[in-house]
Structures are given as C-alpha cells and as structure tokens.
Design a protein that fits this description.
Layout: E1 3-7, E2 11-17, E3 20-21, E4 25-27, H1 29-37, E5 43-51, H2 56-63, E6 67-75, E7 82-87, E8 94-100, E9 120-123, H3 128-137, E10 144-148, H4 151-156, H5 158-165, E11 170-174, H6 175-182, H7 187-197, E12 201-205, E13 211-215, E14 218-222, H8 236-251, H9 256-273, H10 280-283, H11 287-301
Parallel strand pairs: 1-5, 1-9, 2-7, 5-6, 9-10, 10-11, 11-12
Antiparallel strand pairs: 2-3, 2-4, 7-8, 12-13, 13-14
Helix pairs in contact: 1-8, 3-5, 6-7, 8-9, 9-11
This protein binds adenosine monophosphate.
Length: about 300
C-alpha cells in the first residue's frame, strides 16, 4: 500500500457563515487533508503540532481512521493554533478575523519513523521553511511532492517560498494567488510562469468554478459540482488536496492522465466538505455516497459532439 505523508496545521476553528456560527471546532489543513485521504487505500501519517488543550477525542477521529499521528507533537502547556473566519454572503470570499499561531509559531516538524520513505508528500499550507524541512528529512526523493500555499506566505516569505517551490512537483493554488504570484491575469500565462519556478504540474483552484490542471502544453479542467447546499467552505481547498494526493498515492502512477482523475476525486470530496460546518460531513462520509457523486460528475461533463 502506498504511503502518504501529510504536513499541515491541526487547529481549532471558529466559523461564521450566512447560515450560522460555531464555537471552537476541529479544523486545520492537515485534518482536512487526512480525512479526505482516508477515502483511498493508502497508509497516511500527519506531521503537525498541537497544544495540551487539543482534545483526545479530536485525535481519536483521525486515529480511528488509521491515520498515523506519531508525528504530531503535543506541546506541554501549549495552546493549539486557532483560526477564526467569517464568510461573505456569496460564500466565495471570507475575512480572517483571528489567527493565533500559538504552538505553530515554533513548530519544528519531525517526520515519523516509517514515513521518511513515503511515496507522496503533501505539504499543507504552512511557513515554507517548515515545508522545506520536511522535504530535507526524506530518505530518498518521494515519487511526488505536492505543495499548497496562500497569499500570506507570498507577502511575507517570498524568497523562502521560491526555495521550496523549486523542489516540488505539483503546486495547488487558487486563481487570485496564481495571479498575484506571477503578475499575469491570464491563468494560462500564470501557470506557464509558475512551471518555470519549479513545479511541473500546476493546479489552479477556482472555488465553485472548479479547478484547472496545467502541465507543459496540456490543460485539463474539472468543474465543481453545482450543489444545492453550500453551508461552510472551510477546508474545501485542503479536502481537494487530500483527495488529489490520496488518489495518486493509491494509483502509484504519476502522469498527466492520472492527475486528471486525481482532480476529479479532489473536487468530488470537496463537494461534500462544504455541506456542513468544519469536518462534520467528512467524518460521516460513506463510500457509496462518494461513488454516487463521482457518477454525477461524469454525467455533468460528458457529451457527444460529432463533427460533420
Ligand atoms: P481552506 O478553507 O481549505 O483554505 O483551509 C481552512 C483551514 O486552514 C482551517 O481549518 C484553518 O485552521 C487552516 N488555516 C487557516 N490559516 C492558516 C495558516 N496561516 N496556517 C495554517 N493553517 C491555516
């Protein structure tokens, strides 16, 4: 079975959407990535850090799904990373109200025993030096290194981000960030510029408008499923990344063709994530639901045109 190493935040989130408000609930990029990856036949491990205030019950949600947490450091007397966000009425944009790094501020990631030879490494959105440190701890070059990042790191740690980006295979980024990173409005031009920075594959996420995959001169597009219920988009990007990475770890075959399927799996899982607050929907997700929606994806995008 393929091994997937995930690095990212484990967090308390407090979320406000037009439909309601939560207190502190389970969140974090690594949490969403890990939960999405459990939909595939892979062995996965998380490298992260939390404080003593992080409930055992939250750990159990991940442990019970066979995610190896030996790389999750629990800092004595420390407080867990906290993020609070409020979505606008269109649910496509949000304001970050609070970011308390807490234990994440001095995080020194340690790759756990048995995962320094992981096939795929998924570097969740974190300080680029942390992402780089994990790459440097790998015994040999993984088959695939995927990196997620955001505008915050572009604004504050550009040089470090460029160092790590030069070492990876796939970057997942949203459209606004791709434009910011390259100063190109055209996403085709932006993706070409990003490929020059290092990653051979560029995935541009466009929220409810789907995702694009670029590799050399090839482009693939996956729509997002038009949903009746969008409740809370938090974690959709990470869930997408977890589905993408989980599928490729299971498939073992890294190519543009397999990445097309990976994008569909990522989009499919993200469509569930947004239906409830936080991780609620992902923890109860059943295989038959995932499969039924994959078929909906197929129907949504297939057509026969005959040229006369
Ligand atoms: P997404 O909605 O996919 O962009 O990711 C949301 C998750 O990212 C939330 O669960 C947050 O806990 C986490 N998060 C937000 N800001 C940061 C940050 N600066 N570093 C690490 N994780 C973060």
């Amino acid at each position: 079975m393929g091994k997937l190493l995930i690095v990212g935040s484990m967090a308390f989130d407090a979320i406000e959407t037009p439909f309601g408000k939560t207190g502190k609930i389970l969140g974090g990029a690594a949490t969403f990535i890990g939960l999405a990856a459990t939909q595939f036949k892979v062995r996965s491990a998380i490298v992260s850090v939390v404080g003593e205030d992080f409930p055992e019950a939250y750990m159990d949600i991940l442990k019970d799904r066979d995610i190896d947490l030996s790389g999750v450091e629990v800092v004595k007397g420390g407080k867990t990373f906290f993020w609070q966000g409020k979505y606008h009425n269109d649910l496509n944009s949000r304001d970050t109200l609070v970011t308390e790094l807490n234990t994440l501020a001095d995080f020194n990631p340690i790759v756990p025993d048995g995962f320094a030879d992981a096939d795929v490494v998924m570097l969740g959105n974190l300080h680029p030096n942390i992402q780089l440190s994990v790459i440097n701890q790998m015994e040999e070059r993984p088959k695939l290194i995927i990196l997620d990042t955001m505008n915050f790191w572009m604004n504050h740690t550009w040089d470090e981000l460029m160092d790590v980006i030069a070492k990876i295979d796939v970057i997942t980024i949203n459209d606004e960030e791709a434009r910011q990173m390259t100063k190109e409005y055209s996403l085709v031009k932006a993706a070409a510029k990003i490929q020059e920075m290092g990653p051979k594959y560029v995935v541009i996420k466009k929220g409810e408008h789907g995702a694009l995959l670029f590799h050399e001169n090839n482009i693939f597009f996956a729509p997002a499923l038009p949903l009746e219920e969008v409740f809370d988009p938090t974690g959709a990007g990470d869930t997408f990344a977890g589905g993408f990475a989980g599928y490729l770890t299971q498939a073992g075959n890294i190519s543009f063709e397999s990445m097309k399927n990976a994008i569909i799996h990522g989009s499919n899982l993200a469509s569930f994530c947004v239906e409830r607050f936080g991780t609620e929907r992902m923890v109860e997700l059943k295989k038959h639901e995932v499969e039924a929606r994959l078929m909906q994806f197929k129907e949504l995008t297939q057509f026969n045109i005959e040229l006369t």
